[in-house]
Automatic annotation (TrEMBL):
Domain named NodB homology: residues: 80-347
CDD domains, alphabetized: CE4_DAC_u4_5s (cd10973)
Alphabetized UniProt keyword annotations: Signal
Location of this chain's protein in the cell: Secreted
Name the record gives this protein: Polysaccharide deacetylase family protein
Pfam families according to UniProt: Polysacc_deac_1
Signal peptide: 1-23
Length: 347
């Protein structure tokens, strides 16, 4: 009997150790329309399919503030928790996404770039935003002018640059408070997903959580000024690939260098440090194709040096690194390179 109990206890311990850590995911959409650019859109049919797949796979879809609160409180392992967010306050969100979400009984969050609100075209008005709030949605900050936050103006000092960003964030916050008659939550989505260490520090000083545009899951150890959100568009809307991202777990990256993704190198190196017990795990990375990985195993951790398999072009390139977590799920870590080329960024 004692031998049986020991074997049972060992089996239970092995099972517990094999269970992936807690995680939640945040999905990022822009347009829900057949008439808008594919790179920033999904069709209503694709969006409806995503909602149905989330329901079929047992996800709890909650508002972003609830997801953050539950992750911080220690959501149990194996939870399937998701939040749906939209950037820029396009009218197709109100016209096409809202009815589909109402069918499921799910709320969502809109990060509002306030300068364009009420200016006509395909952007919502303040009345539209209030209508979404009455539906139980969350409206929060995407900046006023939708700036490339890492770009400085010609001859602009660091102090002037950060003051300009602070003013843009504060102006959006004040307008949202005026329209909604209450202060919005301190959530900020980086326009274009662009940020660096200085921008993150500014958000930290202002008391904001910062949301990026990169795949990955949200676990308790997350950097709350660099929270991953899974970008979804018509090119990557198939559930075969999107489902893997949605079921993802946070890769336990302990250190990352460099601190900023801004680069002039055509093949910059990204260094990740993982726990020592990852020495035997197979990690694959992609950056516009398979990336090169140089692995060094040390007593205190595993260092991966990841370089793109081909030259970066000016603009933004995501590096995605994955490893199997078992049970049909993957550990996932994503990094954004912002390549300046000759003129993409100012010093």
């Amino acid at each position: 009997m004692n031998r049986f109990l020991l074997q049972a206890a060992a089996a239970c311990l092995a099972l517990a150790l094999s269970l992936p850590a807690q995680a939640a995911v945040v999905l990022l959409y822009h347009h829900v329309s057949e008439r808008t650019p594919a790179a920033t859109s999904v069709t209503p049919a694709q969006f409806a399919e995503h909602l149905q797949k989330l329901a079929d796979e047992g996800f709890q879809v909650v508002r972003l503030d609830e997801l953050v609160e539950r992750v911080r409180a220690g959501e149990p392992a194996q939870s399937r928790l998701a939040a749906i967010t939209f950037d820029d306050a396009y009218r197709s969100i109100l016209e096409n996404a809202l009815p589909l979400l109402k069918q499921q009984g799910w709320p969502a969050t809109v990060f509002v770039a306030t300068e364009a609100v009420g200016q006509g075209g395909n952007i919502m008005s303040a009345d539209d935003l209030r209508a979404l709030e009455r539906e139980g949605w969350l409206l929060t900050n995407h900046g006023h002018q939708h700036l490339h936050m890492v770009r400085r103006q010609p001859d602009e000092s660091e102090r002037a640059w950060l003051a300009r960003l602070r003013e843009d964030i504060t102006q959006a916050e004040e307008l949202l408070a005026q329209w909604l008659e209450k202060a919005p939550p301190k959530f900020f989505a980086y326009p274009y997903g662009e940020h660096d260490a200085k921008v993150r520090e500014l958000l930290r000083e202002l008391g904001y959580i910062g949301f990026a545009q990169r795949s990955g899951a949200v676990g308790a150890p997350v950097d709350w000024q660099n929270v991953p959100r899974i970008p979804v568009n018509r090119h990557y809307a198939g559930w075969d690939s999107l489902g893997d991202k949605v079921r993802a777990l946070p890769m336990p990256v302990q250190q990352v260098s460099p601190a900023s993704g801004i680069t002039t190198d055509k093949r910059p190196a990204l260094t990740l440090v993982l726990p020592a017990d990852w020495a035997q795990r197979n990690v694959n990375c992609f950056a516009g194709g398979a990336a090169g990985i140089v692995r060094e195993v040390h007593s205190d951790g595993v260092q991966l040096r990841v370089t793109p398999g081909r030259d970066l072009t000016p603009g933004r390139t995501l590096v995605n690194c994955t490893a199997s977590a078992g049970q049909g799920r993957f550990y996932w870590y994503s990094w954004l390179w912002m390549h300046r080329g000759e003129s993409w960024y100012s010093e």
